[in-house]
Amino acid sequence: MLRVDKDAFPEDPYPPFILRQLIEIHVDRTLVLDDGEGLLGYVFFVNTSDGYVSWIMSLAIIPHQRGHGLGRRLMVEVLRRLRTEGVRQVRLTVEPANTAAITLYRTLGFSSEDGVAKDYFGPGEHRLLMTLAL
Fold first, then answer.
1. Long-range contacts (CB closer than 8 Å, 24 or more residues apart) made by 43-52
2. Could you tell me if 32 and 42 are in contact, meaning their C-beta atoms sit under 8 angstroms apart?
3. Phi then psi dihedrals of residue 118, to 5 deg
4. Which pLDDT does position 26 carry in this prediction?
5. Which of 84, 87, 116, 125 could form a disulfide with 121 if both were Cys (CB 3.0 to 4.6 A apart)?
6. 104 near 94, Cβ under 8 Å?
């Protein structure tokens, strides 16, 4: 998963200890795609303490596999699981310049009514906040 994360986010991958802890703590909230030879992508998602809201923490697909519907497959499965759990809303943030991801999320029904949150992760780290009612 470290390789997938570094390939997918070369400028800002998770630190190895964070990735390890996410997997350990949220193993039941981690989905991966594997072609039998290696990982192609993953998604992390977590629910808030009340169980009604879930956050997509990270969706990563290795660069040479993008555009083949893998991110959609992961997200469709996450949304299916969350619906069966009674989650009412899904939230995520995405870099405003990541038009491919934004397009994917919009086709799944996410909206961004609040627009771009300036400095969401610190100075110059703007994010588009997107939500989906389930």
1. 43/74, 43/75, 43/78, 45/78, 45/82, 45/90, 47/82, 47/85, 47/87, 51/85, 51/86, 51/87, 52/86, 52/87, 52/88, 52/89
2. yes
3. -65, 140
4. 86
5. 125
6. no
Q: What tokens does 10 get?
A: 């070369």
Dist. CA 106–CA 92, nearest whole Å = 12
**Could you tell me what percentage of the chain is helix, strand and coil, using 3-state DSSP and rounding each to the nearest 5?**
35, 30, 35
Mind listing the pLDDT tens digit for each residue in 31-51?
A: 999 999 999 999 999 999 898
The residues, ordered by sequence, that sit 6+ positions from 109 with a Cβ below 8 Å of its Cβ are 132
Nearest-angstrom CA–CA distance, 93 and 115: 11
Q: Structural domains in the chain?
A: 2-133 (3.40.630.30)
